[in-house]
Fold Ketose-bisphosphate aldolase.
Amino acid sequence: MLMNMKDLLKVAQENHFAVPAFNIGSDQLLKAVMKKVNELKSPVILEMSPDEFEFVGYGQIQAMIYEASKTDVPVVIHLDHGDKYETVVKAIQAGMTSVMIDASKLPYEENVAITKKVVETAHIANVSVESELGTIGTTGNSIEGGTEGVIYTVPAEAKQFIEDTGIDTFAVAIGTAHGIYPKDMKPKLRIDILNEITEEVKVPLVLHGGSSNKDEEIAAAVENGICKINISSDIKVAFYNKCREVLNNNLDYREPLQIYPECMEECAKVVEEKCKLFNSVGKASLYY
């Protein structure tokens, strides 16, 4: 069941759970994710960064649309961290039902101008729009990017930005970073800032950089208003670590049907862990 982000997250916001958003960079990841969320009856967001979109092309989007068409689980197809207006338009033309425009590094007025332009275009096609203020950090090992340090979202500025642009969902910067955290990097989510933001704004809130954070912090974020959590590195690390193991133990393997099944199983285990942590298991029934 294909839908846009605004409609998907409205239900999550009203029922106090978060929808997992998995970055899908291959058909194997897509199938592993969809098989598991169908089993768990969890709504899901299938997303990709501009670099992933460029790599997999329109064919992968069509595969996502097909997967959504044959299930009663709610599915959103989302462009993550759209870098410019033209990329967003391309994503809408490809069939995505939600887009993010990330102009957070620009001065406020320029950020508002490009975001508002995206909103005006996307809403014509019933496509929802996500954006952010502040910056998500980076661990240095992720294609999603980010900055060396986190610039936290200022709640009053978030309220003004949403009013100025008309976006449907808002990504908060409360201490997460894209990628897998090195051993010497200790993330800490600012739930106090999140609570201030939820008092100021009414649109559903999004948490980026959800991989490798402490479960108790993620659970607290969900309890305090986060409706969508992005997961990329965690599922890919599980998949490709198993892939390396399979190939190292079976040097004669060359067929995808030999190599990938165990890798997909490892990916699916992480999907299940995240769905349970985000309290999204069984929530598909709320959309019928």
In short: The first strand starts at residue 19 and ends at 23.
